[in-house]
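Internal tracking record. Fields below are filled automatically when a chain is submitted to the structure queue. Please do not edit lines marked as system-generated. If the sequence contains nonstandard residues, flag them in the REMARKS field before resubmitting.
Queue: standard
Priority: normal
Entity type: single polypeptide chain
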Amino acid sequence: MTGSAITIYCGAARLDETYSSQLVTGDMLLGVIAGILVYTIAGQKAGEREDVKGPNTFRSAFIDEMYHVNAEDVRRLAKIEVVEV
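SYSTEM-GENERATED OUTPUT FOLLOWS
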């Protein structure tokens, strides 16, 4: 499932470029980071839900939270620091 999240965000990152004939365009590192970040935020939100009682209910809650993660959730819950070099 992590690979699917990364693939989706890499696909979205690829859409930023106009050269569709290239195999890879856009910022793939940003796509990977976004996919993993959304994945971990969804897991955190699912784990905090009161309806989660075990692995099966966690899985269902996790899928629901993957669908519902939005930009505000990322701003509020992301534990990431941007370092300029």
